Structure of Homoserine kinase:
Amino acid sequence: MVTVRAPATSANLGSGFDVFGVALDRPADVVHVERADRTTIEVTGVGSQYIPTDPNRNVVGAVAEALDAPAHIRIDKGVRPSSGLGSSAASSAAAALALNELYDRGLSREELVPIAAEGEAVVSGEAHADNVAPALLGGFTVATDEGVTTIDADIPLVACLPEIVVSTRDARRVVPKQASIDDLVHTVGRAATLSVGMCRRDPRLVGAGMDDRVVTPARAELITGYDEVRSAALAAGADGVTVSGAGPSILAVCGSNDRTRVAAAMLEAFDDVDVSAQAYKTRVGSGAEIFEF
């Protein structure tokens, strides 16, 4: 048996749609794999009742097929499905790394990124790497057609997850198909600012670089209380706030001394609009970890 822990992630970060991602130090999925003649899947943990165990419909089934590595796969979910925290990516990344070890395929983590992304295609219809890259590699990642660039950034974060469900497919449907040149210039500038902030480990620059006029406003409409929660987080000292991935989680960047205050403000703002939520005081963390054979 091989066991792998893979972290939750936050993709897009506002200005980096389908490109930027960060690994979070919590929560996480744990995946256990054992050799078998055919792939079977068992799922426990948060939201497990909503996750199919048919290998043709589960992200880890797609990964096992891509690696030609049949196994009995047990997923202990710590990342809620449809949370905007890379739930499917955590399972895909953990399974890819575990099966690579189990069958001694000898692939690097970078080479496993497109394989893990095949799992993402089961959920969203597209094999994009913005979540699986940080889940495998850790840190802040920039995923393009040419590959993945990784920066080891230690940035304090708060991820606030409301009891709202936003499917990845629905969140992709609302993304505008066109953007003005002014919005394009604005996005490029903010993405560059965010990247510099990650390199400098500067929460202020990272927060400023999250601002986005194209994708985030469209997705925010799917999240009850988004404007109120964003305003509350900024008033409590957050350096920047945006939708985490497809939502409904909301991600706030803040100095290490502000996380408790920011988390409390976000929870209170959700409560004011009659939405239950939980907050993770987290930070940019490491990628998937093999911790049991």
About this structure: The longest strand covers residues 20-35. The chain has two domains: 2-151+285-292, 156-282.
